[in-house]
Structures are given as structure tokens and as C-alpha cells.
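With this grant's support, we have settled on a layout for protein records. One resulting record is reproduced below.
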Amino acid sequence: MVVSRLRAKPGNLERPAWYAPPEETDTVGPRRGPCRGAEGEERVEAFGGLLGAAFGLVQLSIFMAFTRSSFLNGGLERNSLVGIKTKVTKSSDRAWDAGHRAALPWLSVAARVGYAVALLTVVVAVVQLVTGVGQDIFLAVPGAGYVACVVILLIGTRKANEAGRNAVE
């Protein structure tokens, strides 16, 4: 039997004998697991947010490690794109080199802190996803990591500025 699309109405269509809507079958029950329902959606959203924050920390740490290794390998000359750019460090090549040499330990520490907090954030995200405990409070972990990295970088920038100033004098 061929049914024309013009004459077919949703209630008039016959379904095949093997078809049954999911709620009518006994083999397909309610979905179970840690991520089902409205609460599960909130958990998945929080998980995604935490993973995004961890990814950002990893990117920041990679950039700090790249800056450090570029300077150590001699490939980071004075420029306007990458490096610790203050009025003092940009004033001369000598100030640039002295400033970056003084900031190397701080760049290394900031990168390591970023990597460690990113790893901790992933662990916290998985725990939060499975248990559903403390969705909002867990955002403090990557937040504290970002704050720590910025504070360490500010200390490194201050040391670079001092060393650059002493190199010029």
C-alpha cells in the first residue's frame, strides 16, 4: 500500500509491527548513572567548565615554559611580542638579557604551578562529576591556580625590572 504524502495524516499512518515507542518497551528502562536528569546536566556543565579552566592553565604554563626555553636557547631577542616587556627591559639588549635571566626561576615556578593546578583541576572535575559534591566550590581550585601564576609572574617581572635597571647603570 502506497500512502501519498498529501493524504497522510500522523494519526492514520500504520507503524510496522516491530516498532514500539521506547516508553512502551520493557527492555528500555529509565537511564541510570551519575549524569542523568537535571542534576546530571549540571554536573556535566560543571565538568566542562573545570576542564576548560584546566586547559587554559595548561596553555598559560606552556607559554611560560616556551618563553623560558626560548631565552635559554638564545632565541629570545628583544622584541615586542614575546617576553617580559617593561619600560626598563625594552630599553636595551643588555637590560633585556639581564631581566630575563633574573626572571627565569620565576617563569619555571609559575609554569610548574600551572601544570600542577591543571592536573588537580582535572582530578577535582572527575570527582565532582562522579559524586556531584560541591559544584561551585570546585571552581576555586583553577581560580587559585590562575591567581598564583599571576602573582608569581608579577614577582618575576619585578625581579626582571630590577635586574634590567642594574644592568643599564
